[in-house]
Specification:
This protein is α+β, with helices and mostly antiparallel strands. The protein has a single domain, classed as Cytidine Deaminase, domain 2 (3-Layer(aba) Sandwich), CATH 3.40.140. The protein is built from 4 helices and 7 strands, in the order αββββαβαββα. Strands 2-1-5-6-7 form a 5-stranded mixed β-sheet. Strands 3-4 form a two-stranded antiparallel ribbon. A hairpin with a 4-residue loop joins strand 6 and strand 7. The chain is globular.
Length: 130
């Protein structure tokens, strides 16, 4: 299944009663498996959890740990980039050259590498002296 189709489908399942801003994400692993996630809000944490984090959690629960490509879709005028926390999570499981495609329901699209999304990446190598 194409990642855009998977992200578009799961976006409809988002639970966003406060913001009404539904986001869907899908990722493919090197094995070809596809995992999806959508944002989930609640009254105590109205900004909720992000779609990308949900897809990554599903990937980990599915027994995989590497992202080969990722797609995010939202109903916005311009493509929405992952939040800072999700960028760090993506970088934890993806190489710097992995492509992240962000798209709108209107078909606008922007693709960036993980390195472009998160310059100055914090890695485990920074803790070598710990």
């Amino acid at each position: 299944m194409p990642l855009l189709d998977a992200a578009t489908k799961v976006r409809l399942r988002a639970y966003a009663p406060y913001s009404r801003f539904k986001v869907g994400a899908s990722l493919r692993t090197p094995s070809g498996a596809v995992f999806v996630g959508c944002n989930v809000e609640n009254v105590a944490y109205p900004e909720g959890t992000c779609a990308e984090a949900g897809a990554i959690a599903a990937m980990i629960a599915g027994g995989e740990t590497r992202i080969a490509e990722l797609c995010v879709i939202a109903d916005s005028p311009e493509p929405v980039t992952p939040c800072g926390g999700c960028r760090q999570k993506i970088a934890e499981f993806a190489d710097q050259d992995v492509k992240v495609t962000m798209t709108t329901l209107d078909g606008k699209s922007k693709t960036m590498t993980v390195a472009q999304l998160l310059p100055g990446l914090f890695t485990a190598a920074h803790m070598d002296r710990a």
